[in-house]
Amino acid sequence: xxxxxxxxxxxxxxxxxxxxxxxxxxxxxxxxxxxxxxxxxxxxxxxxxxxxxxxxxxxxxxxxxxxxxxxxxxxxxxxxxxxxxxxxxxxxxxxxxxxxxxxxxxxxxxxxxxxxxxxxxxxxxxxxxxxxxxxxxxxxxxxxxxxxxxxxxxxxxxxxxxxxxxxxxxxxxxxxxxxxxxxxxxxxxxxxxxxxxxxxxxxxxxxxxxxxxxxxxxxxxxxxxxxxxxxxxxxxxxxxxxxxxxxxxxxxxxxxxxxxxxx
Length: 263
Fold this sequence. Notes:
mainly alpha; about 70% helix; cell projection; cell membrane; transmembrane helix
């Protein structure tokens, strides 16, 4: 007759619940998996499926009651780690959206905005176009599978323990936040440069011929030049976007290592 003690049962539950919490944290924030249009039932089902695959290979977890204060502390730690890892890859997507916002504002598309259900805020049409293009590159290059692979490896880089985590991971996330603005400016720089030259030429034309209606001819010209530059730059954006996503995936591992438990 097979007998199972309460301590063994608690260990089995903990070895599944704690990895599941970290996985849920990543899937709730990471692009594609954490999209607002994906039903919560699908996210939870995928997290449970991944936990069933990953949990058997997770290093030995502390023999604690999951419902005790120490067990709940570990649960909260795993959620924070998962959210930080998912936020790292989400930041690089925010960088391309920032590039679209800068481009749209420079083109004169400041009023061409609509509600984005993903961020629950206003978003320009150019920003959404670039974000969708980045998402297609993200899927077609199988980088979403690399995110899941990094998530599985995180349990070896940062095993589940009852020790208090250091705050190094939070510093990594904060420093990575500045990448939104730098990546946005770098990706939109060719288009901004062309539009800057166009606006300068329009300014000289206005001084040379004051009778011209600059508002009547300025907006069509800047919008046209903007679309021409977007079409010219798009074929060359694939490699920078892939490198940016890989940078975010590497940041996931760095954040995991930075959460070194305090002795």
